[in-house]
Amino acid sequence: MIEAKDINHTFLLGKKQNETALQVLTNISFSVAKGDILAITGKSGSGKSALLNIIAGFMKPTSGSVWVKEKNVTNFSEGEFADFRLDNIGFIFQNFQLIPSMTAYENIELPLVLKGLPEKERKERTEQTLEKVGLSNYHQHYPSELSGGQQQRVSIARTLVIEPPIILADEPTGSLDSETEQEVLDLITGLNKDLGITFLMITHDEEVARIASKKIHIHDGEIVKEEVSA
Amino acid sequence: MNFKDQWRFVRSNMKRSKSRIFMTVLATAMGVTFLIVLASVGFGLHSTLIADILQDRSVTQMQISGIENDDGYAPITDEEIAELEKIDGMNAVTRQQRLRQTPRFSIDDYNGSTETVVTHFPSELKAGMELAEGDLPEKSYEVVVGPHFIENIFPKDLPADAEIYDKEGMLNEDYKYDESLVGKEIEMVVEQNVDNEIKEHTITLTITGIVEPPAKNWLQDQQVYISEEVLADVEAFTETSRGAVISEDQPTSGEEVEGYDNVYGYADSLEEIQAIMDDLTEKDYMVYSAASELESLNSVFTIAKAGLIFIGTIAILIASIGIFNTMTMAVTERSSDIGIMKAIGAHPKKIKQIFLLESSYIGLLGAVIGTVVAFVISILLNIGLPRIIESAFGQELPEGFQFSSIPPSLILISVVICLIVTIISGLKPAKRATEIDVLKAMRREM
After folding, report:
1. Best residue in B2, B335, B344, B439 for a mutation probing chain A (most A CBs within 10 Å)
2. ipTM at complex level
3. At residue B285, does pLDDT exceed 70?
């Protein structure tokens, strides 16, 4: 489903003409099969976020290629990647990334609006998804009126509403307390089992990584360990 | 993302910065108002001058005064009329001859003398002669009269000391014929000097209509318009050309008079005027048309109006700086929202469209408000300015003088200029929105 081939990435730091190169990823290769949950773990600054951003298309690697659903997406233009993401990739962010001026309902409906679906279908799917994440009573609430856990559920609902085959999660429980963290993890495993959604998540938390079927540990930009759960 | 949803986005975004948007729309509206009001002066003066030129004349009308020949000048006769009527694009050729005596007209107990004109009614009908009341004559002894004819007939048994006219020189209401003339029988009395004895001949006519008053209110039309058959009747009695009265003082009065006094050609359309004029000039006709006068006037005013529109556009360009500023601030304020939208799959084109829609909406609102305000100012100018000029300079402006005029074409030009300028000023901020880096934008949110 997702394949990274020999990814290298270097950041240029400092003023122009006096830049220093910082290698953040070195020869990263891995693959995620359909229906798997891959956890990329590593300490802060290990390069795991850079790797997720490259796979998501937010950054282009210095070298190497990314394949999603057997398509080489590395050289996609911004517009092409936007269309591809809208149809195939959902996101769960550590900081939820909800639009503060929109209600929970409007945030969840947003991807369907971007897809240009008819209003009736949007309403139906948004309400169903709100119910699925247990937020039917909060649809008119703004993000600032919701708890961290509720905001993350809205964020997950926004992802689920387009029924993507792949979800990329960036520290999905990083801003949550332990009780809410478990709720979110249960939701992720449930979605993986029930809908067969492929997950690629980065986390520094070994407890979170435990739900993954495959784990990759990154240290200083290199894969140092790969584990497959029984 | 369809247009309706983009529109929803724009409206909700604009609600968030109401006062800033209001000020930007206000500046745009002021620019549009300035442009329209400024240019409307050019349009107003142009239309006033055109109306002045075309008073009592049709734009397709050509005055054909005669034909140049070896002797200098010859009047238009039936031979030339036949030639003129055959010209391509000529709709009608009207012609009039003045009766060479002033007959007396009697209607009921009223009578009066007035000039009489022989008119070829079929050609007048074709040329579109306008009547204020009634219809054009269909029979030989039917006539139409000028609108001021009624002011030239008085009761027959007036006392010698009767004050017929009031202080303003108008016919005293007490002596005015107060019934409608249309359908009334009228007696025309012509006379001839036979062996030093005045003999009279009475012809009974029926009034079928009253001619439209001349546009210039100081012009009077008291004439009676008779047919060629009535003229033949008069000539049979007087035995002179056009009913001239033989006088010993003027031995030439009975001589034959050729041609018509007034000949007008009417083209099918304005486009054909120039070709007909060129053709007639080549054939030595002495011809004049308001259209040729209008042509030079139009070219002067077109340049003047273009200049005024250009100056007005500068005001909109100044307003566009405000739009650019507002849109740039909007992009900066919403960069995290834009980042999120891009992350979940918003195409950069759609984001650009949303911002362009917003700047266009500001432009459109400004254009609509500006146009309405310009209309109000234009009306006030047209009402107020003549009064100000009258009280300040003691000079009365001519009737129908229009200082400011806003034709649909001016509105269209202003709205199009406004929209183009606002869209252009929104282009750069919209492009900036599409270039927002997703990661930087989302980091800012964190």
Report:
1. B344
2. 0.88
3. yes
DSSP for B266-301 reads EESSHHHHHHHHHHHHHTTEEEEEHHHHHHHHHHHH
Distances (CA, A) of B185 to B13, B115, B178, B206: 78, 18, 15, 4
B55 pLDDT band, cuts 50/70/90, is low
Residues of A with CB below 8 A from B439's CB? 53, 58-59
For residue B348, which residues of chain A lie inside 8 Å, CB to CB? 78-79, 82
User: Which residues, including other chains, have CB under 8 Å from residue A65's CB and lie 6 or more apart?
Assistant: A4, A5, A6, A7, A72, A74
**How much is the mean pLDDT over chain B?**
87
At how many degrees (to 10) do helices A78-88 and B348-393 cross? 120
Domains of chain A, by residue range, sit at: 36-47+82-228
Distance CA A200, CA A198 (A): 7
The pLDDT assigned to A174 comes to: 75
Residues in chain A: 230
Mark yes or no for CB contact B341/A101 under 8 Å. no
**How far apart are the C-alpha atoms of B343 and B209, rounded to whole Å?**
81
For A36-47+82-228, CATH number out of 3.40.50.261, 3.40.50.300, 3.40.630.30, 3.30.565.10 equals: 3.40.50.300
| Closest CA–CA distance from residue A151 to any residue of chain B (Å) | 14
Q: Do A95 and B442 touch (CB under 8 A)?
A: yes
Name the percent of chain B lying above pLDDT 90.
37
Is the per-residue pLDDT at B445 higher than 50? no
Residue range B80-116, pLDDT digits in tens: 999 999 998 898 999 999 999 999 999 988 988 999 9
pLDDT band of residue B446 (cuts 50, 70, 90) is very low
Set of chain B residues whose Cβ sits within 8 Å of the Cβ of A91: 343-344
The residue written with tokens 């405000």 in the block is B322
Share of chain B above pLDDT 70, in %: 97
Shortest CA gap A229–chain B (Å):
31
Q: Which residues of B make CB contacts under 8 Å with A? A: 1-2, 5, 12, 16, 337, 340-350, 438-439, 442, 445-446
Q: What is the 3-state secondary structure (H, E, C) of chain A?
A: CEEEEEEEEEEEECCCCCCEEEEEEEEEEEEECCCCEEEEEECCCCCHHHHHHHHHCCCCCCEEEEEECCEECCCCCHHHHHHHHHHHEEEECCCCCCCCCCCHHHHHHHHHHHHCCCHHHHHHHHHHHHHHCCCHHHCCCCHHHCCHHHHHHHHHHHHHCCCCCEEEEECCCCCCCHHHHHHHHHHHHHHHHHHCCEEEEEECCHHHHCCCCEEEEEECCEEEEEEECC
Taking an 8 Å cut-off on Cβ atoms, the answer to whether B1 and A86 are in contact is no
| pLDDT at position A95 | 82
More confident of the two residues B401 and A145: A145
Residue-wise pLDDT tens digits, A139-149: 889 999 988 88
Taking residues B297-326, report their average pLDDT: 90
